């Protein structure tokens, strides 16, 4: 059974650092026409008290988002328990984190070991502990949420990490929270989870990130570019390279998760969370180079339909325009990202890849297929 640690209670606060501006090549689209939609009003909001520290459960919390979120919550004075399978270290010292800060954090974090797919264990262990708030970081299917709700009938708030990948592909962008969703997307489980939460008598909030980046990122987003820049290789980008996408720093996402805690304006609401600016694929390659101090890269464009890469993924992003408006989060939550794109990529590089740490070894096999054909065509 998990033992609880007594922590010092203090008044939670949700302040964010001011954002700095970047002159990097990005695209900020004007979407003021969308303000005519009355979609940000909270209906049927449940009261959540912010007058005391909360007993918080994080489902997950040892890989990426949860590592930064749990630190913010502990600093706010909340009692935080991580529910994981125990296969990864429960805490780890972050690059640049002082010994004192790490020791303070690790002494306060609690752990509940188990498999969330073992529904009977989830119900018995959570009901025995009792929690005020659940942050569900790693939930993928709706049936994984049912036992948590059953175990915690007095739950004050269920905060869910969804994905902007639930939106139906459209020619009209950016995606807004009221836009059509795709029930057949690979994120359909997250969409079904949102529907489940909406159908139950529970106070819930769902955040939909676009692409997340930052130190400890286990998805090959910025790391894919850093590997090629470090090796001095050309960067192969599908089609024109003018496809527009969007990235949000993990620390800004963690701050957004704190912003919705005990926030009545966030009750039964969905929020897109990402960086304020959009960027092209080519622009992202140049941004990674600028952030890491590499020369401007050589970019090779190719038609992916002309190649057979087998089961390997040749490029880490959807080959399409894909970005979402964060106006609602800015207006309702007062969210202001700390990082612009180049600053955020520099933070990721300096605290992670630049120190020689990365999640996956470099694999240039698909690059070589593209480059070998490119050389033949040039000759």
Automatic annotation (TrEMBL):
InterPro entries per UniProt: Epimerase_deHydtase, NAD(P)-bd_dom_sf
CDD domains registered for this protein in UniProt: SDR_a1
NAD-dependent epimerase/dehydratase domain sequence ranges: 56-273
Coiled coil (residue ranges): none
Gene3D superfamilies: NAD(P)-binding Rossmann-like Domain (3.40.50.720)
PANTHER family: CHLOROPLAST STEM-LOOP BINDING PROTEIN OF 41 KDA B, CHLOROPLASTIC, UDP-GLUCOSE 4-EPIMERASE
Protein name: NAD-dependent epimerase/dehydratase domain-containing protein
Originating species: Ilex paraguariensis
């Amino acid at each position: 059974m998990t033992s609880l640690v007594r922590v010092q209670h203090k008044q939670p606060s949700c302040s964010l650092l001011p954002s700095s501006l970047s002159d990097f090549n990005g695209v900020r689209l004007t979407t003021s026409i969308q303000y005519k939609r009355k979609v940000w009003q909270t209906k049927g909001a449940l009261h959540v008290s912010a007058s005391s520290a909360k007993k918080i459960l994080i489902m997950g919390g040892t890989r990426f988002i949860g590592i930064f979120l749990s630190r913010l919550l502990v600093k706010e004075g909340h009692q935080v328990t991580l529910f994981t399978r125990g296969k990864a270290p429960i805490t780890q010292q972050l690059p640049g984190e002082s010994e004192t800060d790490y020791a303070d954090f690790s002494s306060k974090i609690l752990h509940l070991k188990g498999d969330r797919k073992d529904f009977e264990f989830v119900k018995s262990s959570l009901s025995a502990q009792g929690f005020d708030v659940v942050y569900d970081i790693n939930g993928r299917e709706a049936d994984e949420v049912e036992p948590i709700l059953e175990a915690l009938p007095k739950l004050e708030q269920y905060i869910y990490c969804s994905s902007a990948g639930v939106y139906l592909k459209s020619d009209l962008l950016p995606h807004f929270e009221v836009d059509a969703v795709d029930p057949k997307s690979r994120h359909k489980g997250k969409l079904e989870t949102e529907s489940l939460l909406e159908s139950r008598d529970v106070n819930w909030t769902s955040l939909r990130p676009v692409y997340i980046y930052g130190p400890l990122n286990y998805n090959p987003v910025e790391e894919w570019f850093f590997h090629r820049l470090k090796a001095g290789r050309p960067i192969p980008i599908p089609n024109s390279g003018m496809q527009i996408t969007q990235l949000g720093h993990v620390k800004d996402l963690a701050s957004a998760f704190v912003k919705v805690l005990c926030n009545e304006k966030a009750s039964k609401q969905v929020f897109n969370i990402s960086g304020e600016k959009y960027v092209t694929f080519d622009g992202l390659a140049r941004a990674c180079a600028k952030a890491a101090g590499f020369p401007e890269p050589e970019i090779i464009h190719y038609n992916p339909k002309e190649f057979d890469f087998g089961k390997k993924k040749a490029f880490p992003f959807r080959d399409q325009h894909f970005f979402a408006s964060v106006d609602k989060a800015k207006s309702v939550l007062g969210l202001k990202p700390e990082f612009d794109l180049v600053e955020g990529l520099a933070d990721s590089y300096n605290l992670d890849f630049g120190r020689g740490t990365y999640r996956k070894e470099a694999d240039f096999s698909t690059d070589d297929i593209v480059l070998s054909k490119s050389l033949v065509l040039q000759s």
